[in-house]
């Protein structure tokens, strides 16, 4: 078990987004967190990734209490141990694709030449090497998301958090991004926590955790009948 949480509570004013959520993920596992809009999926992911600190409960990563770390400590985890892929990529508009992918390495102190070499290698693995000198506004949404995936994986994180990674893409582009994400995660045994409201996206995962109104499925980790169908074919 690489990541778990217990009794997570998080409120935004009078609205309680999480109400005592508990979950656990094994190393190398792909877990889909599902449920309708507003059920607490993204809030759970943000707490697990250390982006948001819960009001109560524990987040434990490899025996370390993430929720007790300072903001700087949590940011350090996201630079070295975690990768985050957001729905709209959130690439830096002024940087080229290669510069966007290299950015996490540069922030961690890697030399410019080494970071660029690694970035170009990841763009090649994602099938977008020809976009290395293009800026986000010059490429399609699906291509942007593949660049964002490269940025999230370039540090070879132990855990990848993906928040609705295909929500802004058409079906074909979404399938391409998911296919790359699953394949690369399997290759380097990266644990993936994938937030989605789409059953087709959840089908790429090994297991599913269903949330509703900030509460997890009463059975714990509800199994997705089709889970792993796509993921298994990518192994």
Please describe what this structure looks like.
The chain is α/β, with parallel strands linked by helices. The chain contains eight helices and ten strands. The C terminus is likely disordered.
Concise description?
The protein is an alpha/beta fold and 235 residues long.
Topology:
Layout lengths: L2 E10 L2 E11 L4 E5 L6 H8 L7 E6 L2 E2 L5 H10 L1 E4 L11 H11 L4 H14 L15 H13 L5 E5 L7 H17 L3 E5 L3 H4 L4 E6 L2 E2 L12 H5 L2
Parallel strand pairs: 3-8, 3-9, 6-7, 7-8
Antiparallel strand pairs: 1-2, 1-4, 4-5, 9-10
Helix pairs in contact: 3-4, 3-5, 5-6
**Average pLDDT score:** 89
Helix content: 25-40%
Multimeric state: single chain
- Provide the spatial order of strands within the biggest beta sheet: 6-7-8-3-9-10
**What is the ordering of alpha helices and beta strands?**
EEEHEEHEHHHEHEHEEH
| Helix/strand class | alpha/beta
Distinct helical segment count: 8
What is the rounded Rg?
Answer: 17 Å
- The number of distinct β-strands equals 10
Strand content: 15-25%
Gap between N and C termini, in Å? 20 Å
Which sheet architecture does the biggest sheet show?
6 strands, mixed
Indicate the low-confidence ranges by residue numbers.
220-229, 231-235
Q: What is the overall shape?
A: globular
Give keywords:
disordered C terminus; alpha/beta; 235 residues; six-stranded mixed sheet; four-stranded antiparallel sheet; 8 helices; single chain
């Amino acid at each position: 078990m690489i990541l778990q949480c217990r009794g997570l509570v998080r409120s935004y004013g009078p609205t309680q987004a999480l109400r005592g959520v508990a979950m656990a993920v094994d190393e190398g596992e792909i877990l889909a967190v599902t449920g309708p809009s507003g059920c607490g999926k993204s809030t759970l992911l943000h707490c697990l990734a250390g982006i948001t600190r819960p009001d109560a409960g524990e987040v434990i990563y490899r025996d370390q209490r993430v929720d007790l770390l300072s903001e700087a400590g949590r940011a350090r985890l996201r630079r070295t141990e975690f990768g985050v892929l957001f729905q709209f990529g959130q690439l830096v508009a002024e940087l080229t694709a290669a510069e966007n992918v290299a950015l996490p390495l540069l922030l961690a102190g890697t030399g410019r030449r080494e970071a660029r070499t690694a970035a170009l290698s990841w763009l090649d693995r994602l099938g977008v090497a020809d976009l290395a000198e293009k800026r986000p506004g010059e490429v399609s949404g699906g291509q942007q998301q593949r660049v964002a995936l490269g940025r999230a994986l370039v540090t070879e994180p132990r855990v990848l958090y993906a928040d609705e990674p295909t929500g802004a893409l058409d079906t074909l582009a979404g399938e391409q991004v998911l296919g790359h994400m699953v394949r690369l995660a399997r290759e380097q045994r990266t644990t993936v926590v994938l937030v989605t409201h789409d059953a087709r996206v959840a089908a790429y995962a090994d297991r599913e955790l269903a949330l509703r109104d900030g509460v997890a499925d009463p059975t714990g980790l509800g199994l997705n009948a089709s889970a792993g169908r796509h993921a298994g074919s990518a192994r």
